[in-house]
Amino acid sequence: MAVITYREALNQALAEEMERDPDVFLMGEEVGVYNGAYKVSKGLLEKFGEMRVVDTPITELGFAGLGVGAAMTGVRPVIEFMTWNFAILAFDQIFNSAAKMRSMSGGQFKMPITFRGPTGAALQLAAQHSQALESQVAHYPGVKVVVPGTPADAKGLLKAAIRDDDPVCVFEGEMLYNLKGEVPEDDDFIIPLGVADLKRQGSDVSIITHGKMIHVALQAAAQLEKNGIDAEVLDLRSLRPLDTDAILATVAKTNRVVLLEEGWAFGGITATIAALIQEEAFDYLDAPVLRVTQADVPMPYAKAMERAAKPSVEMVIQKVNQVLYR
Amino acid sequence: MADENTQEIAHAEDQAPEAAVQEAAPDREAMTAEKPALSDEERLQGLESEKLRKMMYDMLLARRFEEKVAEAYALGKIGGFCHLYIGQEAVAVGAIHAQTPDDYVMTAYREHVHALQCGVTPGAVMAELYGRADGCSKGKGGSMHMFDAEKNYLGGHGIVGGQIPLALGVAWKIKYRQEERVIQVYCGEAAVNQGAFHESLNMAALWKVPMILIVENNRFGMGTAWERASSLYDIYQKATAYAMPSAVADGMDVLDMYRVTKEAVDRARAGGGPTLIEARTYRFVGHSMSDPVSGVYRTKEDVEKEKGNDPIRIFADLLARQNILSQEELEQMDEEVKRVSEESADFAEKSPEPAVDELYTEIYATEDVNGRLYFDGRR
Questions:
Q1: Global ipTM
Q2: B44-351 maps to CATH 3.40.50.970
Q3: What is the pLDDT of residues A177-191, one digit of tens each?
């Protein structure tokens, strides 16, 4: 296995899938000549030409809809949003068109489209550029949502997304693009949607999370270990479909749960999972399910305020101690 | 598409239509007079009698079918929002005759006639309206979401202007695959104020894709007169902002629709890119079944005056004058389309309701996935 960055892993996934299938094309702002705002598409224009790596005007609603119409008639667009924050302008086309085309046509149209881009807060980008929007997107039946937290997951999930016949929204981590990790070199390396991954085995408490937050959870687990607490970290990887078997299994194993997400609490991913656990695994619980989320405020700019608003290792440790009644 | 509730309707007919009084309303006749008056021969464009008769048949069917729909709606056989095309028939009939069945059509929610014109059977359209299993969207779409992939009929979209970027994508696909096809996409004049319209025009012209955008200007976005909604009256002029060819067509004249659209289709097929067509038309019915024909935003007299410009009458007179279709033949044709419309309702009536246990089908490509797709705890 090669050690590459999350960015390179995504680049490989795109290049391999475009090589494999001439119907796959990449479209978005700055994906071509500029090599991608985050350099994910570096070198692809040179390799595949301008019909397949398409620089768009700044027109998110328009090119998202373009992708949906193209997918409806048989090609496989990968639509890059410079960040998911800007995709809010395109949500009409994702929610009203992509998510519903198969259903409202009585199953006549496939929707093999991938929407991708970074989610969540980076550093001091303030309110409009710091939102983790995966919970909002996963709300809609008809779409699929994946949130890779490592280079290997990024490559395997993006390849699976591109090959899928449903609209798949890939939420990448803006702060993860430089993260290095081992990635299999096989051209057919796929991570199936809907399969969670135990990033750390443990027996005392389960921390269930996804995306960038798996690193917060792993750091918390490492510190907890020093205090004799053995935490399990479950990385959901895919939010819809959701690996509910893996969730229920870890609850049954540790009987104590802390849920962690980068986004807001109201209607969040953690809210859905907390509901699921109390509905289907109530008898396994030895403590209430607790959550760590972003502060329920628009993200402020000032450094100290931003730090206070984001979920932290300390907050996770505190909640773990609470569910352990320590 | 939001709609008024039905409670105020009973009285709406009698209200003083203050909003309909447009002091500075542009003179519609003066505008259409921009086009040179053509002789009958020029209007007929050398089209074969058979094609002309088919156009007449299609317009008549559209009219009688929609009347049948209105009747079924009044009887409670059809639910939801239902937007009729009566008065506007020349637009879709003329324009769709100007392309081939291999080309695509996409439109908004006033769509029953576009579906018929693409070859979706009257029975399948009516069954969809009835919410039955034999509907063209298996009863899952309804009046606003009809589709037929085999007929290249791509819907049926309910968010004003939302279909325009989708059609741009189809046009992009045609270019990507180097096909010799085109797409016609329709929107109402009110959709022109949506961002989706402008974003799509820009990219369509920038990339020269084979898209013909037909704006059906029936002069009211629901109850808002066009001149109360746009700073610019002439919609076709909006194309100049995107360096795109555009034209005005008389939407009450099926042959003018055919001529103007054919020119755009030929240009698009030859690689000349998109065209914006403003079709000036009028709906003789309310915005939807819950909106009266006249009332707060237009007077009974307005509508009656426009009905003097009935596209079916205009075309029938021409065909009679030119000995292409006699009054007697027209009446026979009318009987035929009434029968077809009746039969479509019978077909819909007999079609079964879709099985409720298919609620969770056709949401995703396959239900055979890892993990859970639905979270309602019902399955």
A1: 0.97
A2: yes
A3: 999 999 998 889 999
